[in-house]
Amino acid sequence: MVSITLFVSERFVRTQSAATHLRVLRFVSLLALAARVSGALLVLAAGAMHLWLYFDYFHRVHVIGVLFVVNAAVAIVIGVTLLLSPHPFAAAAGIAYAVATLGSFVLSVYRGLFGYVERLNGPWQAAAGGVELAAIAVLLPLLVASMRSRMKVRGLQAGF
């Protein structure tokens, strides 16, 4: 009788542990989905700002105006990809988009870009920069987590 009780109690603990593990997996999956959707919306918002700025002023600026439209188009492609695909390349593309956009802005402030020199301060600069930094902050942990889980599935990660 003691062994049956021990077996039942051990089985109960295993079942409870498996249920807890399943809840954790569901929570992590939901968190990853929320990060992916948030990252997509942030990338799309950055692209929308660049499209707005194109129509507001930058359509007059040679080369830079066209690059603002290209920026918006790339944001749409990456944003939709992030919404539809959990692949790590989608998160990496979102990060690359935000870093490239911020890098181009910094370059245009300190060196000039295609003959145009931008100001560092301003409401649109702060808004776009904040959205792009937020996209990086949301997508970078998602990329790291998805790469780690892919490595675990393939058996390439030891001890983490």
Describe the structure.
By secondary structure, this protein is mostly helical. 82% of the residues lie in helices and 0% in strands. The protein has 4 helices and no strands. α1 (2-56) runs parallel beside α3 (88-110) and α1 (2-56) runs antiparallel to α4 (123-154). The longest helix has 55 residues, at 2-56. The chain is elongated, with a radius of gyration of 23 Å.
How is the secondary structure organized here?
Elements: H1 2-56, H2 64-84, H3 88-110, H4 123-154
Helix pairs in contact: 1-2, 1-3, 1-4, 2-3, 3-4
Tell how many strands the DSSP assignment holds: 0
Q: What gross morphology would you assign?
A: elongated
CA gyration radius, whole angstroms: 23 Å
User: Roughly how much helix do the residues carry, as a percent range?
Assistant: over 70%
Question: Any descriptors?
Answer:
4 helices, mainly alpha, disordered N terminus, 160 residues, single chain
Task: Tell me briefly what this model is.
With 160 residues, this protein is mainly α.
